[in-house]
Design goal:
The protein is an alpha/beta fold. Helices cover 46% and strands 14% of the residues.
């Protein structure tokens, strides 16, 4: 008798932002779709994570797993194609050494200086954003809003109120995706319903609560793009700013993850009752390549070279293969990542 095929397990995805480093997430999603053992119920995404999540949702709705894999590839190839005409190109030294960092690229150095003395309201008065054209071409908003599985949650930061807004359902628009990816030093704030928004990473990178409260699946798989730990203290101004952003962008996620760990412990100790308290055990998992991603500087987040994007893609697939081999068996049973494990 033929072996009975197991039904896919439902999981939720939490996708971090990180500019071009989001191609790492492309590799992770591609490997998960190819593996086929999981069905995605909810996706919480910020910045590049929100864009990956939107493309994944559209692709699944229109073409299943294979369609989603193809649309994700189309996204990053299109981003690379448009980047080829932009100012942020690798210099001769980077091409010679194979480094994806743009630290000594004349255009990047000039832009880095300009950001310290001028705002995007001055150097980009027409508010040109190449990502809008990419999203207009590839994202079907009607399909995205009507999707029942997976359900997408997009985070953005309200500039004046200092609060997180999570867009879902019919509230998701191209502007919502752009707001989630709006770095304030590069682009003007995105106006939605009379409110101005910046990158969602300042308040949640990504936020976990919609996956906990609005989804039935108990497993949340975090795709880590931004390193939590680094070996060296940054010395240059750019490196210091990059590390400040990494710490602030990871802070909200780590607070939510700690709270999740506390709830799980209290439930396990029967100090809270599953169901009666309105809480349930949630299992947290993480796919990342912290050491390898730590070698890429802040400037490489603006590098759209297709070779670099495919390098990140391959790294994401490799990280996923490792996770599937070691931790996949624990899905639905226990967490394989705890924030407490990072503490000395």
């Amino acid at each position: 008798m033929a072996a009975r095929k197991r039904s896919p397990q439902r999981i939720n995805l939490a996708l971090q932002g990180g500019g071009s480093h989001g191609a790492f997430t492309w590799g992770v999603l591609d490997a998960l779709l190819e593996d086929g053992r999981y069905e995605i119920e909810g996706i919480s995404g910020t910045s590049a994570g929100a864009v990956n999540g939107a493309i994944l949702t559209c692709g699944l709705a229109k073409g299943g797993r294979d369609g989603a894999r193809q649309l994700l590839e189309d996204l990053w190839v299109e981003i690379s194609r448009r980047s080829a005409f932009g100012p942020f190109q690798s210099d001769w030294l980077g091409r010679l050494t194979g480094s994806p960092n743009l630290d000594v690229s004349p255009a990047y150095v000039a832009f880095d200086f300009m950001m310290r003395v001028a705002s995007p309201y001055q150097f980009n008065p027409l508010n040109w954003n190449p990502l809008r054209d990419v999203l207009d071409k590839l994202v079907d908003i009607d399909c995205l809003c009507q999707s029942q599985l997976p359900r997408l949650y997009v985070s953005a930061t309200n500039v004046t109120k200092g609060r997180l807004r999570v867009f879902a359902g019919n509230d998701i628009t191209i502007d919502a995706l752009l707001a989630s990816a709006c770095l304030p030093f590069l682009f003007q704030a995105v106006e939605i319903d009379g409110e101005e928004y910046w990158d969602g990473g300042y308040m949640g990178n990504p936020t976990l609560y919609p996956l906990i409260h609005a989804c039935e699946a108990r497993d949340v798989l975090v795709v880590q793009v931004n390193p939590i730990e680094r070996d060296d203290v940054p010395r240059s101004g750019t490196a210091i700013m990059n590390r400040v952003n990494e710490i602030s962008f990871n802070a909200t996620f780590m607070r939510e993850a700690r709270a999740l760990g506390l709830i799980n412990r209290l439930l396990a100790e029967h100090q809270l009752t599953d169901g009666q308290s309105g809480l349930k055990p949630m299992y947290l998992h993480m796919i990342g390549k912290e050491a390898e991603m730590g070698h890429f500087g802040a400037s490489s987040k603006l590098n759209g070279d297709l070779g670099f994007l495919r390098e990140l893609f391959a790294l994401g697939r490799e990280a996923t293969a490792e996770w599937l081999a070691t931790d996949a068996e624990h899905v639905g049973r226990k967490s394989t990542f705890e924030v407490a494990s990072l503490q000395a």
